């Protein structure tokens, strides 16, 4: 029975003073997981704000060094904070190979106020791996030998709440102006959704964006890599309601009043 765990979750929301952070319960630094079904668990570090102020999260199982150039994501999982502080995931044995303390978890969590925080677990090993460690990760593992630390936290919460300036640009600014297809990195930014008009005036359909080539998959594809999270710009549209001060219309009289009164019985 596999009870070891990958772990991760997170934290980050907007408080004028501090950011929440995730404390990994498992796997322990230097521990060993078994490929297959594993339980990912975590807890709030106790730093405000609460995990309830965080939205969706995604977890990537990384192998390699502590930089983008020397690490590779071999599988990923996603969920939301409402589901609780645990997640059962599957580590495919053929996705990589044996690597002592060559693995760590990368957790990307979206803050409800905008932006995101990325946390990393300590390093650990995975038994039962039957594949080959990606070439791009081999040198990174060698460079990290002797240390159980993963990469440092990356904070790009809106307005950089809680400090950590320099660890990432605040989300919610120019990122949304860049066409989606031209953006790079694990997080992409979608523009604000348009508000439907009160009246249809268009006679001809015109796409908002150019079409792109699509190849239909005919066999099972490997786990998705690259984009982990898409953040949509907050909606600024608002509605104001006012009281109708017009006097009510008088009720019917004569035969119509008699007709309607029949239905009161």
From TrEMBL:
KW Transit peptide (keyword) present: no
Domain of life: Eukaryota
Domain Yeast cell wall synthesis Kre9/Knh1-like N-terminal positions: 26-126
Protein name: Uncharacterized protein
InterPro entries, sorted: Kre9/Knh1, Kre9/Knh1-like_N, Kre9/Knh1_C
Keywords (A to Z) from UniProt: Signal
GO cellular component, one term: extracellular region
Domain Yeast cell wall synthesis Kre9/Knh1 C-terminal: 175-253
């Amino acid at each position: 029975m596999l009870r070891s765990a990958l772990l991760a979750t997170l934290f980050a929301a907007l408080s004028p003073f501090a950011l929440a952070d995730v404390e990994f319960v498992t796997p322990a630094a230097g521990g060993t997981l078994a490929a297959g079904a594993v339980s990912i668990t975590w807890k709030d570090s106790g730093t405000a704000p609460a995990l309830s102020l965080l939205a969706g999260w995604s977890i990537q199982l990384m192998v390699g060094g502590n930089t983008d150039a020397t690490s590779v994501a071999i599988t990923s999982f996603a969920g939301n904070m409402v589901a609780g502080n645990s997640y059962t995931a599957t580590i495919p044995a053929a996705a990589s190979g044996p690597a002592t303390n060559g693995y760590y978890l990368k957790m990307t969590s979206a803050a409800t106020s905008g932006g995101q925080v990325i946390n990393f677990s300590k390093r650990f090993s995975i038994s039962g791996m039957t594949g080959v460690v990606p070439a791009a990760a081999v040198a990174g593992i060698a460079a990290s030998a002797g240390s159980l630390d993963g990469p440092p936290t990356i904070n790009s919460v809106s307005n950089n709440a809680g400090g950590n300036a320099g660890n990432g640009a605040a989300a919610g600014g120019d990122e949304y102006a860049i066409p989606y297809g031209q953006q790079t990195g694990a997080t992409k930014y979608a523009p604000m959704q348009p508000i439907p008009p009160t009246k249809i005036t268009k006679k001809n359909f015109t796409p908002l964006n150019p079409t792109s080539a699509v190849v239909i998959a005919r066999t099972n594809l490997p786990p998705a890599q690259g984009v982990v999270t898409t953040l949509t710009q907050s909606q600024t549209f608002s509605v104001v309601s006012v009281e109708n001060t017009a006097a009510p219309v008088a009720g019917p009289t004569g035969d119509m009043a008699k007709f309607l009164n029949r239905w009161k019985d």
